[in-house]
Amino acid sequence: MKRWLEPAKTVLLNLLVLASFCLTAMLWSNQPKFQFIEPAQYTESKPVQEKQLVQLVTPESVVFHYGGDRHTKAVATDGPYSMVVKEMSKWIFLDFSPYMLSNDKWGEIAREKMGLEVRFKSTVPLSIVGRLVTFRDEYDTRIKGIDRLWLYYEEDEDLVYALFLSAEEGQMMRSRTSISPKDLRESYLATGNQMPEQIMKVIKPERNYSAVEGAFPVWSTFYLPKNQMRMQQFRYSYETISNEQLIEGYFLDPTLVRQIMERDKTVIFTDGSRSIQLRSEQQAFTFTDPAYQQRAQEQSDEEKVQGAVNFINKHLGWLDDYHFERMKKSYNEKDLITFRQYLGSYPLFSQGDKPIDSIQITSEAGQVVTLSRSLLSLDKYIGNKESYVMSGPELYQYIRDKKLGNTDQITNAFLAYQTKVGDRYVDLTPIWVVVMANQADLYISAAANQRGGGAHGLE
């Protein structure tokens, strides 16, 4: 027996070695199937209504100047406005130069010369304006943005000039244009001739800027209707953004999101980095992303606004009709970018604790840090009622009669809709928004008594 024990061990050992070789060969020839994991990305809410930058930066109004202190105005729902805005892509500007006007020359251009004024809601970066028109030459880079583009006819030279104006910066420059005097008279001014007549109000600069300081005197103007106007009051139903839409739209991986309930009933969704603060009583939320990405170079104002547009495009979209309103610096040097909601040609301003009027973004180095917007969006039209709104003279008299403020301190006044959220509906009521120099803005019901506007009150 002992004689066969050693050969048996040898055979067994050989079998084990052979099995080991076979298993090794099998492992070598059969690689496991790896599954590649895609990097986490924001999940876009469906459907998403995207917009391009040029769709969001549009003129607030177009004012037609006929000389003799006669002016008319068209807004986005008027045919003359649409015609002028469409024609803007054909306008060419060249030979830019800084320009300075005396008060007498300002008065001559504003009240006596034929012209056309394209007005924006606030200062728009000049590079964005360059997307709406054509700049043939280099312009003065000291001017970062404009709030008005004013075309006027210089009779002595038989030329149409353009003034690029920034009341905020106290800056202006002038250029020649490709627009012929004939086109100005027979096309643009002719089409605006039947629009409602306006009273021009002028706010002269508190001091005369000097050329040494790099700024010139710039008149700020606004316009009020001479007579009462018809305006609709609307009622709409609304839709509410769900928690699921918020989580899918703003977080990298929805499965990592947890919900926190604060003592004041505020709901917070967070994945440990980004968060959404949900204020149910206000039907609004604030998204926060504290992560900071260092960028190699400073961004232009256009790039900052474009970044904000891209962010909204990818996260829930626009849902309603919005337009770029302004960009300004915050106390800590971050960029505050506001998009205002519109119905037709009128901006929306909220009443009460349920805002449904704007999207506000704070960005740093082009990256969105916070975003605030309403959970509500207008849905179906329910009904409307037509009414008359106060003329400019009546508005001024009303402010005086009610002792609401000094009318000499008014720097702007415009019609808008005030939103009031009810039980499953939103009422949109016409109001006058009156901007005062030394006090808070006034929000005044625009309803008139339909007896016609008198020619008093604006002196």
From TrEMBL:
It holds the Pfam family YycH. CDD domains: YycH_N. Residues 7-449 form the Regulatory protein YycH domain. The chain crosses the membrane at residues 12-29. It comes from the Bacteria. Signal peptide: none annotated. Keywords: Membrane, Transmembrane, Transmembrane helix. This is Transcriptional regulator. It comes from Brevibacillus choshinensis.
